[in-house]
Amino acid sequence: MKRFFILAGLALALTLHAQAAIRQTQTTGAAAQAGGKAKGGAKVAPDAWKSYAGRYELGAGIIPVTTLDVTLENNELWVKPSLVKKRKLAATRSRRVFLDEIEGTRYTFNRDEEGRVVSLTFQYEGSEYTAQRVTLPPPSVKGNTTFKLKGYTDARVVALSGSFNNWNESQLLFAREGDEWVCRVDLTPNRYTYKFVVDGNWLLDPANPDTEEDEYGNLNSVLIIKDK
Question: Does residue 9 lie in a domain region?
């Protein structure tokens, strides 16, 4: 009889242990599911990510990545670094840290003392760099010299960059007119080299066959404006 009670006690203990394990599994599963939703932060609270959208710029000549365009699309945060394709950013537990879903690298949005997003720190080839947020001006549509680019209907930012503006990528913007992008600027008689920058990707002027190679081996379009 004594042995019977011992065995019954062991059976009861095992039953209680199994029930506790089931409850623990259910709790853990629910937490993981909630955590998974939090990781898709752009879907949980898209309004919180609106302040991150914009262009971030790194000084030319430091690394190949010179601009990063951050957009909020379908309640998800995306980044388009120059020279590479756009990729989605996955939120982490921190509201300001995201992971590149292609490479797994970290992107951190930095705020100033007033809470404004002012820069973006990212990883490139094992090192960290910080790009400053820039305010894009309205398109440049007035001037004595016109540049045109057909197509690229899905482009977000098309810029004109050259020797006339110290190769700035965020200063002279194109406007969409009909089936082409158009930029007009005032240029004095001189010899200029330039390129178009479409969402961070450098492009020769397709309408201009005149090109030359610079000291770094880059091929640029050439424009010569003569005295009238």
Answer: no
